Amino acid sequence: MIIYIFGCLLLAISLNFFLIPANVFASGFTGIAQILATLTPISTGISLFILNIPVAILGWLKIGKRFTVFSFINVAISTFFLEIIPIVQISEDILLNSVFGGVIMAIGAGLILKYGSSTGGVDIIALVLARYSERPLGTYFFLINSVIVLTAGFIFDWEKALYTLVTLYVGSRIIDAIHTRHVKLTAMIVTTKPDELQEAIHEQLTRGITRLPAKGGYSKQDKEMLMIVITRYELYNLKQIIAKVDDKAFTNIIETAGIYGLFRKDS
């Protein structure tokens, strides 16, 4: 929960110290709410609440109840910080504000995502899309928010919209660096206990294993190599399993450039 509070604090700081003073458009559902508030008699707050209802249902069904509940708690915490932290202009340079605002906001959002929650709105939509494709999460943030910002630019101010795109691009790179669930790794484990190791891995990880015969070049001992593709998030668990079952196993971890065929994406 401390991570969530810290992430929400960073979000509020990025808005009140950098983006709002520079008059850079907000991204995500906040930006949509601003557009609706301008075009209709509905206020920004009410629009934001209405927009989050179908997204909350999507998150409840596709991501999980705990995730959705904590996402709304994060929305409430962010709102609290936005209200108590004064809006202060640190720099008059709009580019500086766009870059620093994007970096700080992305660190906050990325930390919250890394520890299993979100800031609601576009976060949930991007997370659902990322679960069913090989594209990194930051790509979806950038694409969805780009549509929103371009719409705002078409209606209001193109210069501010373009600076907001700078913020979004910087933010999407930072989020991808923090949220690495999309990164796939291949582990090649040479062991003398293949059956025990396979059973232990399948108890904790839902991943396919390919078993190959192997032989020690020095010892001439017959062994087996277990090849398994995992996400970077699963690497810690895999290391623990190997150390527990066969602490003498030789393991080579390499980053996977691409996967073709069946691979479970919703873990």
Automatic annotation (TrEMBL):
InterPro entries: DUF2179 (IPR019264), N-reg_PII/ATP_PRibTrfase_C (IPR015867), UPF0750_membrane (IPR051461), YitT (IPR003740)
Pfam family, one: YitT_membrane
UniProt keyword annotations, A-Z: Cell membrane, Membrane, Transmembrane, Transmembrane helix
Membrane topology: Multi-pass membrane protein
Localization (cell): Cell membrane
Spans through the membrane: 42-61, 68-88, 94-116, 137-156
Listed GO CC annotations: plasma membrane
Coarse class of the protein's main subcellular location: membrane
CDD domains noted in UniProt: YitT_C
Record domain DUF2179: where: 207-261
Record-given protein name: YitT family protein
